Structure formats: C-alpha cells, structure tokens
Amino acid sequence: MSLARWLEADAHWSEHLRVAEQPGWRRTAAAVLAHSGDSWFWGLGLALLWWRGTPAWRGVAGRTFIAVAALALIVLVIKFVVRRRRPQGEWGAIYRTTDPHSFPSGHAARAILLAVLATGWAPAWTAVVLWVWAPLVALARVAMGLHYLSDVIAGVVLGLAAGGLALSLLA
Predict the structure, then answer these.
(1) Across the chain, what does the average pLDDT equal?
(2) Res. 96: pLDDT tops 80
(3) Is 147 a catalytic site residue?
(4) How far is CA 54 from its chain centroid?
(5) Positive or negative, the Cα torsion across 111, 15, 89, 144?
C-alpha cells in the first residue's frame, strides 16, 4: 500500500471515529477523556503527590515526573521532525494554537506511559484503572478531531517503549 493510500485510509477511519461535531453524551465523554490526559493536570497531580505523599509515594511521583518529562521531550522532537498537521476542526483550540502538529499523540503516549509505570510502581487497582483509562484517552483524541488514528497508535507504541525503559532505568 502506498503512503498516499495509507494516509487516505487513516483519515477515513479517523473521521469515522469523530464525534466532535455531534452533540450528546458521546461527545461530552470524549471531551472529558481528551482533556484528562493533559500534561498540566498530571504535572499538578504528581506535584501534589510528591508534596503530600509518603516517602514511598514521593519516590514514585519523582520517577514518574522524570519519565513524563523525558517522554514529552521525545514527542516534541518527533512532532517537529514529522510536522504532520492536525485534522481540521474547531474543538481544542488550545491544542491547535500551542501545538499544531499531531504526530505522535503526546496524550496517548503519556496515558500509556502512566499505565505502564503504575503496573510497575503502584498498587494493582491503580494499574487497572489506568489501563482502562489510557486507551480511552487515545481514542478520545481521535473522536474530538485532534489526531488521526495513526497518531494515537504511534503514541501508544511510544508510551509502551518509554514505560518499559523507565521501569528498567528508574527502578
């Protein structure tokens, strides 16, 4: 399959998953999930955990912050090398303004990274919750028209790789 045909199929399936312009519960759920992976939200949460947590949780928060920051840098470099424009749309103006590039999805990568890290460093219930949440965040980014399906697939792969590396290096 040629690159042009692959990109056409990617755009088709991404559009098929899109709910950004459709009022109702699916759009509301997708919007909440799409924002729940925001870096500021997780940065604040990790800062609070480090500030108010037990010494063990402070260690988890610190290692997680390092992993998230390193992943953000990797995603940023890839985005500026690839420079794939986000799909056209109105929703998510903050993302479209501050980061016009879509490949790979930083939200998908971060969500999967957090799930991987929770598997290694947190109680089992936390890992289960994050493994349910993370793919929903990735799909919500497509549903809200901020990413193509291939953007989030690449983000998932990147998050898995970064999570495995972080678990081995930051243990």
Answers:
(1) 92
(2) no
(3) yes
(4) 27
(5) negative
CA separation (Å) from 142 to 86, 145, 157, 158? Answer: 10, 5, 16, 17
Q: Which of 12, 35, 101, 107 is catalytic?
A: 107
**Once rounded to an integer, what is the mean pLDDT over residues 58-82?**
95
User: C-alpha angle with apex 162: 158 to 166, nearest 5 degrees?
Assistant: 170
How does pLDDT run across 75-92, given as a tens digit for each residue?
A: 999 999 999 998 887 777
Domain edges within the chain? 26-169
Provide CB contacts within 8 A for 109, sequence distance 6+: 71, 75, 155, 156, 158, 159, 162
12: annotated active-site residue = no
For residues 171 and 168, what is the distance between their CA atoms, to the nearest angstrom? 6
89: Cβ contacts below 8 Å, ≥ 6 apart: 20, 21, 96, 144, 145, 146
Number of other CB atoms surrounding residue 146 within 10 Å: 24
Residue 104: what residue type? P
